[in-house]
Amino acid sequence: MNLNVSTPPAAMQQLPMQELELRIESARRQLGQRLLILGHHYQTDEVLQHVDYRGDSFVLAKIAAKSTAEFIVFCGVHFMAETADILTSPEQKVFIPDVTAGCSLAEFAPREQVETAWQEIQQLDSSKVIPVAYVNSEVSLKAFCGRNNGLVCTSSNAQAAIQWALERGEKLFFFPDQHLGRNTAFRMGIPLEKIVVWEQARFLEGDPAFIAAVRQARIILWHGYCSVHQEFDAGFAGKLRRQNPDLKLLIHPECNFELAQIADYMGSTAYIIRMIESSSAGNRWAIATEKNLVNRLIKQHPNQQIEMLQSHEPYCETMAKINLLNLCYQLEQLVAGNLVNQVLVEAQYREEALLAVKRMLSLKL
User: Fold this and answer.
1) CB–CB of 183/260 below 8 Å?
2) Dist CA 88 CA 70 (whole Å)
3) Which end of the chain is more exposed for a tag (fewer CB within 10 A), N or C?
């Protein structure tokens, strides 16, 4: 839920970048310790130069949980700001400079459809099933997990979350990203025949092969995927590797299974950064993740040969909605005492969603 949605007036939209930058820094000084700005790695360099902390969704969630700032401005997408609001006190307020900065992956799993699938899975099998929601999901689904003995995960701790769930149940229902679920489970030693994507049409038809597959599965996946990481494919990666046998493939686990099987390394955005930072000079990398992070790594590590693992530059369109203009407007409104674009999780979801997120934060990695 968003309160007092507001956008920059037309007069501001003509301001040059340099003036926006000066006004952002002026607003930051005026707000002082009352303000905390968080930025995801997929933001542009122009935005990230003004944040207090940058990180992946897991790191930013932990920072938000520890913060005492009155105002938390999230330069990311909506579900990240919701997670921050869940983890902070009622006295703290969370804002997002553009409330339309959503996530196509989160939109893949509407709550009503997931709850229907959950009930249908229960009809097929008496096994104890634990729900696991990727953090890229609606807050109502995080609450669903909290209510049903499940938890939330990020790409940084998906393996620990799956292990946690399988220690408490015979199966797990993982949503919304099928690729993160499959890649992580397979890497943990769970064979593909024990991993199945939920298909309601086949359930309603009473397809015996599908029903048998669900009953023998340990991992039941939702059918969602990230539109950015979907653009990377094994065919192009194979072509690059044939041209450059020394090339190392470094991918995000939201990429598809075929690419994951030929990649040298796979992990979250934080993992990708650590791999490059700890790598020796002269190494050659092809990285499969959002363009802003890849291009930043190219600039920061000129002693290594880094390229995008694709012929074009996949990027997150909704993340890009956060820019200098709406960040400047957001901060100046806070200076003026106008609490616009506040992200407030509905009371009906807050307690149960917090329970699921706290279970994630307690995982041993």
Assistant:
1) yes
2) 10
3) C
Q: Residue 238 is encoded by which pair of tokens? A: 């194979």
H or E stretch covering 106: helix 104-107
CATH of domain 106-226: 3.40.50.10800
- Topology classification of domain 2-102+318-348: Rossmann fold (3.40.50)
pLDDT tens digits, residue range 234-247? 999 999 999 999 99
Tokens of 152: 């939330």
Beta strands in 244-333 (DSSP E): 248-251, 265-266, 284-288, 305-308
Are the CB atoms for 267 and 252 separated by under 8 Å?
yes
Q: Which fold has domain 229-308?
A: Rossmann fold (3.40.50)
Number of Cβ atoms within 10 Å of the Cβ of 125: 16
Give the whole-angstrom CA distance, residue 147 versus residue 257. Answer: 31
DSSP state of 166: H
153: helix, coil or strand? Answer: strand
Handedness of CA 166, 168, 171, 172 (dihedral sign): negative
Q: 93-95 and 342-343 as β-strands: parallel, antiparallel, unpaired?
A: antiparallel
- The percentage of the chain sitting over the pLDDT mark of 90, rounded to a whole number, equals 97
The domain ranges of the chain are 2-102+318-348, 106-226, 229-308
16 φ, ψ to 5°?
-70, 160
Query: Would the pLDDT of 364 be above 90?
Result: no
Q: Which residue has the tokens 């360099």?
A: 45
Strands (E), 31-168: 35-40, 53-55, 71-75, 93-95, 129-134, 151-153
The pTM of this model reads 0.95
DSSP 246: T
Query: Coil, strand, or helix at residue 287?
Result: strand
- What pLDDT, in 10s, does the model give residues 277-318? 999 999 999 999 999 999 999 999 999 999 999 999 999 999
Q: How confident is the prediction for the chain on average, in pLDDT?
A: 96
Count of CB atoms situated within 10 Å of the CB of 237 = 22
For residue 48, give both structure tokens: 């990230």
Is the Cβ–Cβ distance between 344 and 84 less than 8 Å?
no
Check for a shared fold between 2-102+318-348 and 106-226. yes
